[in-house]
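Why does residue order matter? Because the sequence determines the fold. Keep that principle in mind as you read this record.
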Amino acid sequence: MIDSGAITFDTLRSMEHERALEELTKLPGVGEKIANCVLLFSFGFDQAFPIDVWIERALCRLYFPRKRNVTHRQLREFISSQFGPYAGWAQQYLFFAERTRNKKTRKQ
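Structure:
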């Protein structure tokens, strides 16, 4: 799709985040997490917030400690309302903190 020009990098750069995310997820094998990674790390979309297992754990532990079964939609709504246009930066700190926390816990 990229080779044929159906999706171009220049076009992605000029789109709003949600539209660029939608376009990238049209690529075979590209889901929401990977599309957000590409948008955050390659295209400068500071609001892109990839959610993997580490981020989900961190968000649930820090912001929903007493709630079970937090949905993906609830996480997305929380991220949007709390972190806004620089959510991707917050994601990086959360990821690092969660990975570091788990390494320290395992060593003890």
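The longest helix spans residues 87-107.
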